[in-house]
Specification:
alpha+beta, Immunoglobulin-like, nine-stranded mixed beta sheet, two-stranded antiparallel sheet, 2 helices, 34% strand
Length: 211
């Protein structure tokens, strides 16, 4: 009787151990779970990498387009620079020059948003826009204006193939004397600034072409 019970218990343990050691049913399920996990991870990383690639490409395109746009909208000096004799007769108190947009047909430049610096060996002055920016008259001392006698309401906007003449006037105390080097820097709201460097002739006439 005891022997039968011992054999029955031994057979039961062997059957349970056989069931526990038989993992063929779990291998396929576990493999499917692992495969699905790998697919999800790979898809996630692929989405992140593709998104980063698209973002980098879009940023690079914007930088390139902005650079091309700004480089194609730079200011250029057109023609001569003229200096007008001051009332005191011993120097220049007003300059006239013409600017145009560089070739390329980029963005239009609104000159009303430009800043201007006037410098000589003895003075540095920020020239402010005249209260009446577009006028057929000279500006007030310390001011600059767009010289235009037409009725163009868009006269301050510089586009490709368009030219704009600028007059600037300095106070009597800051006129440029014979031999002085004059630097005028016109800075648009975007793109490169235009620097004009000229020298006052040794003999000043009423109107002078500066070189």
């Amino acid at each position: 009787m005891r022997e039968r019970k011992r054999l029955a218990k031994s057979g039961k343990r062997a059957a349970i151990k056989g069931i526990q050691d038989d993992d063929t049913g779990f291998t396929g399920l576990e493999g499917a779970i692992i495969l699905i996990a790998f697919v999800i991870v790979a898809a996630t990383f692929s989405f992140i990498i593709l998104g980063a690639g698209f973002f980098t490409t879009d940023t690079a395109q914007r930088v390139i387009y902005t650079g091309v746009d700004q480089s194609a909208s730079s200011l250029m000096l057109f023609g001569d620079v003229y200096g007008y004799q001051a009332s005191s007769g011993d120097g220049l108190d007003m300059l006239r020059f013409t600017v145009k947009a560089s070739a390329g047909g980029g963005r239009a430049i609104d000159l009303s948003e430009c800043s201007m610096i006037y410098a000589t060996p003895n003075h540095i002055l920020t020239i402010q826009p005249n209260s009446t920016l577009i006028s057929g008259l000279p500006p007030l001392p310390g001011r600059w204006t767009i010289y235009d006698t037409s009725t163009d309401v868009d006269a301050s906007t510089l586009r490709f193939n368009k030219q704009i003449t600028i007059l600037l006037c300095v106070p009597e105390s800051e006129i440029a004397h014979p031999g002085d080097r004059i630097t005028v820097t016109l800075s648009p709201p975007f793109g490169a600034a235009l620097s004009i460097i000229r020298t006052v002739p040794g003999k000043v006439d009423n109107v002078n072409i500066l070189v």
